[in-house]
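Example record

One chain of 256 residues, shown exactly as stored in the release files.
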Amino acid sequence: MRRAEKPVPDISSPSGWVLSIAAAFLVGMAKTGFGGLGIFSVLLLAEVFPARESTGVLLPMMIFGDVLGVAFYRRHASWSDLLRLIPPAAAGIVLGWWIMPRIPDAAFRDFLGWLIIVLMALTLLQRRFPGMAKDAAHYPAVGVLAGVATGVTTMVANAAGAITAFYFLARRMDKMTFVGTTAWFYLVINLIKVPFSTHLGLINASSLTFDAMMLPAIVLGALSGRWLLHLVPQRLFEAVTIALAILAAVRLVGVS
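Predicted structure tokens for this chain:
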């Protein structure tokens, strides 16, 4: 199985550092209440690194953000939903690990962009027909399917937030329970992904050194997200986030 090249940032490019710091800041915000921003971290790092290698750079940042999210919202979680979703998600991670090196390098950027567009369409569908999601969530098979899809998508692209949001919202969680359950879920799932990403060569000493430099931006983003969670109207924020994510994904697909 081919190992990826070491993802080393272009330190001669100020714009690369700006985009990386912005991505780290958004990771922190996404993990403390504004999950829709997580997709931008994926997109921004794909502008700095090769798309495949960017997933290995992002994963340790996300884990650090997950730790902060759990620290803030550890008491707000639905453990029954976590136990229902984590096992199939773990199976999906294994499937994603098998699929990832089989996607040609030249096609990975387009694949990532189209995947994000599909996930945003899923989010829009949930907003437009909320009753459909609530009805579907009563069927155990839907939880299994959501878990596997989450595992595959998060392993391949670190971009499964739309799937878990679709499922958790369908379970009629209030805002705080949603944030707490999501934080615990992704902490566990992202830790499971580490050995698989390391095996693929996507996490290494170079990428971890770079991640360490991004930690202050993640902390600042987490504190900002926690502060803003109670101030910003959620529906308006999500609508703007979805629109911008779709535009960014279209750009990702359109750039060779």
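Notes: The chain has eleven helices and no strands.
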